[in-house]
Amino acid sequence: MKLTNIKGQQGRARNLRVNIVNRNLIIVSSTTTPTANHVVTVEYDSEGIIHTRCTCPWAMNGNVGCAHSIAALEALAAKRGRALSFWKTKDDARRQKHRTFYLAGKRAEEGLWITSRRGL
After folding, report:
1. Tell me, what DSSP letter sits at residue 11?
2. Rounded to an integer, what distance in angstroms lies between the CA atom of residue 79 and that of residue 109?
3. pLDDT confidence bin for 120, thresholds 50/70/90
4. SS3 83
5. Which residue among 44, 54, 91, 107 is buried most deeply as judged by most CB within 10 Å?
6. With contact defined as beta carbons under 8 Å apart, do 97 and 117 qualify?
7. Neighbours of 82 (CB within 10 A)
8. Do the Cβ atoms of 30 and 38 come closer than 8 Å?
9. Alpha-carbon distance 117 to 115, whole Å?
10. pLDDT tens string 53-67
11. What pLDDT, on the 0 to 100 scale, is given for residue 27?
């Protein structure tokens, strides 16, 4: 399922605690159970495509762009002085005139577009 309320999900992600183990493994607090954590793995390919896997039920059911994955990607970007925004379409992302990446879903049409800019 493609995420429909991207900005809402990005807002939820900002309230999560993130512990970066390395650039491919991030531990993120749970949104529903404050004493639990989810493990997010991040893989990058040479074409600017990002693949994330999260242990939350929403992501385990094949959905892309859970709050934990977004929080993990934002934390990795912040570590490099960057800020991310997430978009439904490539055209929406390109209008921002920033570097773009693609967060892949199980099927090509289910992914999200990401723009990266200098952090505030």
Report:
1. H
2. 29
3. low
4. strand
5. 54
6. no
7. 16
8. yes
9. 7
10. 999 988 888 888 899
11. 96
Residues in the chain: 120
Residue owning tokens 């493609």: 2
Identity of the residue numbered 9: Q
| Residue type at position 70 | I
| HSE-CB of 60 using CA atoms within 13 angstroms | 5
Tokens encoding 1:
């399922």
| Both tokens assigned to 65 | 């762009």
Q: What Rg do the C-alpha atoms of the chain give, in angstroms?
A: 13
**CB burial of residue 103 (10 Å; 0-12, 13-18, 19+):** buried
pLDDT category, 3, cuts 50, 70, 90?
confident
Q: What is the pLDDT of residues 72-92, one digit of tens each?
A: 999 999 999 999 999 989 999
Helix, strand, or coil here: 25? strand
Q: Please report which confidence band the pLDDT of residue 108 belongs to, taking 50, 70 and 90 as the band edges.
A: low
Tokens of 109: 């049409």
Q: How many CB atoms lie within 10 A of CB 48?
A: 11
